[in-house]
Amino acid sequence: MPSMHEDLESMTTKKKQDDDEEYCLDVPVTEIATNSSSNEEEPITTTTSSTPSSSSLSSPYATSPMLYSVIFILLPVFSERFAFNGVVFTFPGFSDIQTGSYISMTQGIGYMSPFFTAFVADALLGDYKTILIFTILFCIPGLFLIAVVSIPDSLNTQDFPTKALHVGTHILFPLGFGAAKTLYGVYAAKQYNPKTQAEKTKQFFVTFTAVEFIGSFLGAVVCIIMSSIGHFIASGFTCAAVLVIGLLFFIFGTKRYVNGELKRKRYMLMLLTIVDAISCCKRTKPNEKNNNHMSYDMDQLLRDTSQDIDCDPDESNDQVSNVVLLHCKFMQNSGLFNGPMVVSTSYLFIGFWAVLIKKYITPLLGRRNITLTISNKFVLGSLFLTLGLAVDAIIASQMIRMYDESGGAISIFYGLFATFFIGGMAFSLAATNELAFVVASAELKMLGTAVMLFLTQGIPNILGAQLFRRCRDWFDVNGVQASTLEEYAHSDSLNFMYVLMGFTLYDVILFSLPPVWRWMDNFEETSKANNLRADTECNTATYSTSNVLSTISENNVWKVAIMIFLSVE
């Protein structure tokens, strides 16, 4: 029978082992976390062992990723959004219509670049190096070029250097912020263990949304104030400096990041699979010599593609800012609080709603065993945006009524009622990022995010810019853009607001239909199951042609394609 001394010694040893285990979980193994240039496709895994300590040592994930590594990724996210909105809110010399169209086109170009960025990150350089290269070579030079162009005679040109401005706003800067939108969120989410920290990953995207839009708000406010007091040139260089500081913080956390392996082999097999499929698309009989050629990759490619092309609703928020800005132009300003400042508060309220969702709404619903599905979040986000547009339409109507009765203007602060409701878009914005990450296969997270950005930001911004131009007559009086409250009162600008409300109501109705939200919930769960199955299947497994066809049916690829066209506004 063991003595009391032996029992005490045993308990002390066990406690020490537990403490060692907890410490090991907090410190990633640098050999696993370092950037790899290997061509081999070896996903990060946690090896099982009979002892907890050995399991802990083999895991590259920290027990508290937010404090250990993610915070160093969120800081450049904040600075990038600060810089972006500092630039887009300060375009002196451009009319309101020109500015809105110009910004929409810049955003549209930027959100088409994620496909190239995803390929570079997944197959060529890795996430970490791609972030560094695109920020250093594109985003920062683009910001400095835009700032330099604003200095009179800085480029020794007789006329305004429009071509140089286009290089900054349509090439360098879009490639930079497009890469940032693709990489930062996914790279930060990859710091969480997909098996044991899945719930934390979902909550992270709410935090990510809050950081993005608080940075957007502060960037817009700071640069608007600097421009209003005559320091426009300094505001441009401030944006570039803030981004440099954010990049330095990102580099500071280098040794803490979890980095996966390159997917060169995966992308090559995908390309060969597509070529193989095209070459035999007209065959009526299976090829005896090549019946199983890369058949596993065909199956997985079909699953990955249908999951990446998910049903992301496009919101009309990109054009909402332009319309709200036009309305606020004819309100009574209060000091430095003007139209652009009101529009920037929508970013603040989105961040506010994101914090509210994470800290209060989600826990409150959880205590009542209520879980918001992806479709629920889409409906709520679209509903709040519709309410914001409705409130803004009411405010615009009151502006016209006030002018007709007394010839005066209403206070600029009324615009805050509209931007408060617009902030409720945080529901759908966080859900969109979450869906793109969760549904995409483990090997194609970046590609899934690229597809999401292209469908929800790239195409809508370009179409929105064209729509804005087509409807320009609604903002004109006798062929001239309204520049006074009297001219605005006699314009048809409210019609464009009603068009945007129609788009958002369409989203609300679409994602409220029982067949649609049931399909979306099933789609999410099926995609997760497919990802788990792909992790356990052997790459050398073979499948028949009928198996490939069953995979198409299983993933509802045709339904997904139809839903994409229905949901894009």
UniProtKB/TrEMBL annotation:
Entry keyword Membrane: yes
Keyword Metal-binding belongs to the record:
no
- Localization: Membrane
Biased-composition ranges, Low complexity, are 34-56
Q: Where is the signal peptide?
A: none
Q: How does it sit in the membrane?
A: Multi-pass membrane protein
Membrane-crossing residue ranges in chain numbering: 66-88, 108-125, 132-152, 164-184, 204-227, 233-254, 336-357, 378-400, 412-432, 444-468, 496-517
Alphabetical GO CC annotations of the entry are:
membrane
Where is the region Disordered? 1-56
Pfam families, sorted:
PTR2 (PF00854)
Say where the protein is mainly found.
membrane
Key words, A-Z: Membrane, Transmembrane, Transmembrane helix
| Gene3D superfamilies per the UniProt record, alphabetical | MFS general substrate transporter like domains
One GO MF term on file is: transmembrane transporter activity
Instruction: Write out the similarity annotation.
Output: Belongs to the major facilitator superfamily. Proton-dependent oligopeptide transporter (POT/PTR) (TC 2.A.17) family.
PANTHER family in the record = OLIGOPEPTIDE TRANSPORTER-RELATED
Protein name listed in UniProt: MFS general substrate transporter
Recorded source organism is Fragilariopsis cylindrus CCMP1102
The opening ranks of the lineage are: Eukaryota, Sar, Stramenopiles, Ochrophyta, Bacillariophyta
